[in-house]
Write the structure tokens for this entry.
Amino acid sequence: MAESTPPPDDAMRRLQEFLEGHGYDLATMKNVLEVIHPADLAYLIEDLGLEEKIKLFEMLGPEIAATVLSEVDPRTQAELVEHADRGKVSEAVGKMEPDDTADLLERAAPGQEATLLQNVDARHAEQVRQLMQFAPGTAGGRMTSNIVRVRDDMTAGDALGAIQGSVEAEMLESIFVTDPDGRFRGVLSLRSLLRAAKPTPVATLMDPHVSTCRPDERQEAAARIVAREDIAALPVVDEAGMLLGVITHDDVIDVIQEEAIEDLFKIAGTGGEVSARDPVLKRVFVRLPWLLPTMCGSMLVGWLMNHFSGPLGARFAVVSCFIPIMMATGGNVGLQCSTLMVRGLATGEVGPGRVMRTLFAESRVGFTIGAICGLLTGLSAHLFNSDLALGAIVMVSMWVGVSVAATAGTLLPIICTRVGVDPAISAGPFITALNDLTATVIYLSIAQAILT
Amino acid sequence: MAESTPPPDDAMRRLQEFLEGHGYDLATMKNVLEVIHPADLAYLIEDLGLEEKIKLFEMLGPEIAATVLSEVDPRTQAELVEHADRGKVSEAVGKMEPDDTADLLERAAPGQEATLLQNVDARHAEQVRQLMQFAPGTAGGRMTSNIVRVRDDMTAGDALGAIQGSVEAEMLESIFVTDPDGRFRGVLSLRSLLRAAKPTPVATLMDPHVSTCRPDERQEAAARIVAREDIAALPVVDEAGMLLGVITHDDVIDVIQEEAIEDLFKIAGTGGEVSARDPVLKRVFVRLPWLLPTMCGSMLVGWLMNHFSGPLGARFAVVSCFIPIMMATGGNVGLQCSTLMVRGLATGEVGPGRVMRTLFAESRVGFTIGAICGLLTGLSAHLFNSDLALGAIVMVSMWVGVSVAATAGTLLPIICTRVGVDPAISAGPFITALNDLTATVIYLSIAQAILT
């Protein structure tokens, strides 16, 4: 988990009262720490000054320190690793989950690895090394290898014994079955194990029809399988069929949250996620590139207006007043369509066999919305200016512009998916700029053809 | 789960091949059904015609039929309940999870309840009735009461026996501890149970410091606690402290997905979620209201242009060409800021104690972006028209407009949260329309003041 999440208000209030009233008194602190969840502590510690961060962190027991170190933002994590007592840090790392340790090491300065891993036992260190082979964002980079494994030639009684011997595993409710060479065979639920007689062979109890994924698959694809099948964990299996680890439901929750936020940020054109604690200039330069399509598109609209202002002469003043509504409505309808399409593709609501049908349906919706908006705008153009020709031009242009925007907004994410580009990138500023421009060209061309 | 999610392409291909090659031959069907996940079947069945839907559904065994009936979209669910063989439907309902049964009954026609529940045993029916007391969207409406419960005066040995006796529970890894009256006391993990000696009292093994939620709390709030604390289930406890049920991780995944999509749809202004199978007019009228703020805002921009075209006279043609870039850039920066703020508030990254700091930081970012965009646009206005005054007007207007848009975009979601309105609703079309208008007023006012 890269980012801590919010504490309930009462935990916050209690810690603030504590910090104000008691100072850093170890005895009182211990009492307060018992009632505050480590996830809250992680949130609170992010807001402290460097010195206070270190002080508070060094007061924590190793278990709580491990959770805090796993959950604070990367910036605070780096500060703690660099400035807090080395013994305290390596003690906390010794209690962390292998996947969190791998994340920490990937961000740590080179050469720190040995110090950080000094309290980590050999099995844990081996798991960390295995996880670090896979790129962040892949299933392999997210999986845990801390699971209960049994061989398919065992009995139910043996499997119950294996659980007893692996109580530190991340999940006990699913037991993962391999052949004697380590090739994945199926999943044995604790439920069926408890129902079975002890001599029953594991091979007859397990479910062999289980979805799996490859370690180099994108983590979103793995998360989607878990969400779809309502399973607690997804086995990660390499090309030779060897069981490497599993992706558990808590990682799936993180991935799904991250993915939904990424899509939203791409569609709204905000660039990557930045923290409020990042310097202003960094945040400016993350966002500026996303403004470029908008600025270029609308500058071209301005150039078009300039181009048409000569031929339209005295009527340009009145005609130009309807450019904002053409741009804004076309852009808005296009954004509606592209957003629905991007999410439909991401959640699978628009899956195989439904793409073309959705495209035609969205075009019909756009055509109808265009007709309604065209009637409304055309009518007000006519009433406001007592100009029937202008009203008709506005009506037809709006109708055509909105229909085109709806079709383009639906089509672009489909094309992006086909050619392997992330459809969310196309859905926001790019499609809006394109639709602004198209709507203006259509309107000014029709106006020039009829009015001059 | 309200909506089925996508099947992997190979499952899809296999079923399509089957449907084309074999027709509805029961023997072959059985073989195919064994390799296709029921979640895929739910997706596939949604796309069939009514008659085929019924035929396919009636071929399924009760277990698979139960999953399919739980996972198809509400429209297909209603069709199956109404038209498929009553015995088959009630058999499937008998195998469904209580929370899915409650969802089904809430959507079913009045009077159907008795028929639908005829194969449901008394305990399941009681759980369904309890769940239906709570509104959809609340923690109570999402929880399951199908859990392992033990009393705090039991021993570890008793608790292991209780698990053996409740193997049908939705989760076995967490055991929920109450006092003899049913008041919630804590959670006992299977891990600590397996580590303990059999005579150890449950009260000393359980974790009493566990987050809980009330049944009438919003499901998003409950999901956020589970995501934050990386727990497998959250106990739902009433005012008297009685344990009613728990929210499990698979429901949390659904809630988080739904919430992220809702926020996205509000920000992109698409209205509620609609299915591609809904009639065109329904989808048009879901989306039209979200276009109104945009259309009203941009019509007012047009009215303003008309208002200023007189005083600006011959210079209006040139001045008006920069209105699109003012509107588009202001609108885009405002959308960036409001999106970041809405998600920050939703995930808790902008939690207690960070709101004002984020507002000031975002305003500084907006001020800097405004300065850069102002310089670029002002320079091109000057170069393109050889008009230093126009260049200066464009530069200053862009700077002020973008700064105001950034501040307004950040502030509006904060105000909405304070007064209890969903901030996501304010973040999309409303703030964009407001910023379009503000940017135009600023620009045209400055232009008029200097050029006339």
Q: What stands out?
A: The two ends of chain B are 63 Å apart (CA to CA). Chain B touches chain A through 120 residues (CB under 8 Å).
